[in-house]
Amino acid sequence: MGGLTLVPDKGSFVKAFQIVDTGSIFDENKFIFTQGVFSSGKLNCPNGQVTNYSRASVSIRQGEYILGKENGNIVEYVFPKTDWDAFVDDTTPSISSTRYTHTFNNGSWVSTIDTTPGINIKATVAKNVANRFCAFSFAEV
What we know:
The protein has 141 residues and is mostly beta strands. It has one helix at residues 84-88; strands at residues 4-8, 13-15, 18-27, 32-39, 42-43, 45-52, 57-66, 69-80, 95-105, 108-127, 133-140. The protein has one domain (4-140). Strands 1, 2, 3, 4, 5, 6, 7, 8, 9, 10 and 11 form an eleven-stranded antiparallel β-sheet that branches. The longest helix is centred in the middle third of the chain and has 5 residues, at 84-88. It is globular, with a radius of gyration of 15 Å.
């Protein structure tokens, strides 16, 4: 079973099991990665990222988060969980996803303003000596 890995960025730190300022939380028990600037233990920044791979479809959401809630335009990439291993494998060139642009108001979904299928994305993943995730990034290719 995985664990919880807190990775503060340079100049940030962990205090009382929370990231103070900027970093990443890799929760391998809940299958969720949360990355960006944190305030009171919650994502609070204009360009946060939440990756949820706990369901049949993986979801990567990027955009503004206010105290852990999505706000404004959020770009979401969705692909089948069966592609997750290939997605994080260094030998796989890319996988196909659907990109959505949603509008949220303080955590409440308002509308989906764009849907684009067939967007190819690739990930970069690193694990620490305990074989737990310690870095995750992705990009359209």
